Amino acid sequence: MQIDTTFDFRADTPPNRDPDTYSPTLRRYHRILWGRKLPNGADFTLDDSGRNYLYHRSGLGEFWLSSDAVVPSFTREKRMASITGQIPSEELDTFNTLGYTIGGMMVWPGNRIDGKMTINQARGCYGSIKDRFDFTLECIRRHYVGEPSPLGEVLGRYGDFFALFRGFQGFVEYFLLHDLVSDDYSAVRFFAPFEDFRVTSPLLGSVDAYRDYRRLAMHFIAARNLRIAGLHPALDV
User: Does any domain span residue 39?
Assistant: First the structure.
């Protein structure tokens, strides 16, 4: 079977379960796509045969990775119900379906350190992020250049993971996130106007703002799917 960038991972997930944990196709795709050579040339082979979702152990260190659907549609966000309720269900369904293709998925370190939140947990729990992937990537950019951000503490706990990629450009290139950053990798391209985390809410304040967010987010996912298809155009997984 080849990597299908149109595959909706909810399709092979048991009812009322999370594709990030229970879709066997998603787990297999993650293993193949992100278990490859790092920017320094070292192999980052990922094992999905054990009870850990994905696991790597070598001279690089020991890493436990988990999956995350990273581009929220906000259809379950109560504070946005008055806005998403004005969007035709077909538009919302199209957004959700694209978001559950491989272009809308990431892996993060999944092991808790000192009983504190993982990156995935913090992305959802912090009100200044609310699962926004563009906001998350801005935090990662700031991590690499030593600037503070709402996720600074949690990203710092997983510094060994981010060190694997030798900088922000290496991280972007490894995970095929080029379409979410400027050509020189110096800035994130946000899905909605952004000033600063202290000023800009991750939630959208109007129907027009939501539609702009949806359009740009879907463009990113579709573009990343094309990059993934180009990376492994005929890979037997």
Answer: yes
The total number of structural domains in the chain stands at: 1
**Sheet (strand 61-69) strand order:** 54-58, 61-69, 105-109
Q: Which residues contact 236 (CB under 8 A, 6 or more apart)?
A: 1, 2
> Of 213, 195, 202, 136, which is closest to residue 171 (Cα–Cα)?
136
CB of 38 closer than 8 Å to CB of 58: no
Residue 126 located in a structural domain: yes
Query: Considering the domain boundaries, does residue 197 fall inside one?
Result: yes
Question: What is the SS3 assignment for 12?
Answer: helix
- Could you tell me the two tokens for 112? 């808790």
Residue 93 inside a domain? The answer is: yes
Can you name the residues that pair with 67 across neighbouring β-strands?
107
Walk along the chain (237 residues) and give the pLDDT tens digit of each residue.
479 999 999 999 999 999 999 999 999 999 999 999 999 999 999 999 878 899 999 999 999 999 999 999 999 999 999 999 999 999 999 999 999 999 999 999 999 999 999 999 999 999 999 999 999 999 999 999 999 999 999 999 999 999 999 999 999 999 999 999 999 999 999 999 999 999 999 999 999 999 999 999 999 999 999 999 987 654 443
Range of the domain at 102: 9-231
Q: Residues 110, 233: contact at Cβ < 8 Å?
A: no
DSSP conformation class of 36: S
pTM (global) more than 0.90: yes
Q: Give the phi and the psi of residue 77 in degrees, each rounded to 5.
A: -85, 110
